[in-house]
């Protein structure tokens, strides 16, 4: 089974995703294409990398994950492919893939060479839509096994740093941020649950609000703001039967901290 | 052909639907997954049940319909599967499935037992995303035939009552509500066309507006509000070449009535 | 490989697209269905035709392209199918298909006859959802080869004129319009790049703003409005790292002109 996942900031307007699928199916007839999400905030590479990092393990081995959040399209930015954890990853070299834990350290990473691309017989790429003109046929070549990542260009050891830093602590306070906001208004942060192990009774703060950790969405009283470890292993701020984004006015990028309750 | 349909309130932001598909494909390679809708209003089980009830017959026999609108995730609510009308249905026991006509009376309904789940070798479920951790692999087990619904746990005869009541009449006036509003702004109600047979010249009312029934969207003069029986067999309020939701300011849950014109 | 593409103004709310796929899969088990876009502005046939015309070549030969933007559903409007450029097209006869270059002149175009439809054994169609009741089973019949377009009804030579005229020039000034606005706020026009060949240094204008052509999204200084030829071969107005629709307040249908810079 050949599976390609797509992660973009293309949204649902227009045929951008559909035409990428057309090119994939031309080059990899019968491939299964799964939309991971197309609602990454425009040019917000951090969200694309965050979701890829937190979801790729649910896919079968040999899945090809293609992420196209590409503000530098048409410039000199590199295109890279990585083999990591029995799966393949393909994206512009802008810090999306290096958000995947261990990838920068342990994966085989290759950059697409202009020479290899020119030998594929693909139409000359546009300057503004490499998702269709380069990434789609390349993903198809990888998923069908017609190309291995070592075929497409030289190995590199200097991919761009992660587009979004991990949450950091100074011993007393952990400092992270809101990476994304879901359909229900939950604020999803980059604070990994493992970082919370150093606290006895962690208190999560956003702006002037201080929240205790609960276990489920329904555990807090209706209307109450609370925090929990979500199903992707990070701190999330929710409003029971409400919309935390509306209640708090919080936006993507806003600071979220964790400290010991007793220290307050 | 193994088909699974998905109906959720997950929206398009984030990888929630995509990761459910990952798990389904892991457990049921080659399955066809159809998105019925992911734009159910958050936690509005009535809309999920309404659409399932009105659409499942269009799918081939043996389709597995999975609905995950699940405000009680992580609490003690049951998970149920039903065999009805040659198709299979899977959802939290919160009144979604019992909106399907005849299901509460005639279907075989089983609840998922904790014991059976634990024997499947699935990863330990999270507290907040059973769509991925329980429903997806269970749907895959059912669609591949690896499990029958009688395997997953005991039969039950007391599923939760329908999340949304049927429209009701007192002889003179039928009383229903707006279940959902579509992309064009049409107000879709729970008033079934069969209930209208008792009227000679039905008059549909929402707020202070009284509307006659027409046959098609283009039958009314431009800008006119009118009512019709839509293609799913219920009363719908539309604005010719306009947006009825904007014109009326109506919201989900608003009351819609039908009475005899001459009685006015 | 049997591929059907879908282009509609149905949006994501409700099961309208999902139920069309149900009917397609009933009649064409195993078909691959690609969503081209469902976010055409309500009843805006020009956008549907524009995107079909600019994308169909990316799909494999024998793909069936189904467009359902159908304000006249239930009225006497015709349903037509066209064989053009090794692909098949199916839509209401409202000027969507005739936006495809050369189709009106060179394609074989047939209209669906009532007699043929009645012999298919399909359920009686509703008055308001021919996408599900006629177009979906018809697309399935065409993609499986069970019907050829000459089977479904008589050839016609008078399909409706293109829903959206091409940009026009008077020698000095080209005059086009904004056809659609994408997720990033880029204003996509109907001004084909070939029309620009007559200019030495084209200046693109929208409202009071005059813009020079650049090559890529990142070529302009941050915040600057600029114009470029996009990857579909038409003039597009973009704001570097911004949202051109918000910056300009432009809407679908707004006039965009091109003239010689030196003539200003």
Strand count, sense and barrel status of the largest sheet of chain A are: 7 strands, mixed, barrel
Query: Number of helical runs of chain A?
Result: 6
Report the β-strand fraction of chain A as a percent range. 25-35%
**Which class best fits the helix and strand makeup of chain A?**
alpha+beta
Distance between the termini of chain A: 54 Å
Q: Could you report the average pLDDT of chain A, rounded to the nearest whole number?
A: 95
Oligomer: homotrimer
What is the strand arrangement across the widest sheet of chain A?
8-9-13-12-11-10-14
Number of strands of chain A: 14
The outline of chain A comes out as elongated
Largest interface: A-B, 33 and 31 residues
Classify the helix fraction of chain A into a percent range. Answer: 10-25%
Series of H and E elements of chain A: EHEHEEEHEHHEEEEEEEHE
* Contiguous uncertain segments of 5+ residues of chain A: none
State Rg of chain A. Answer: 20 Å
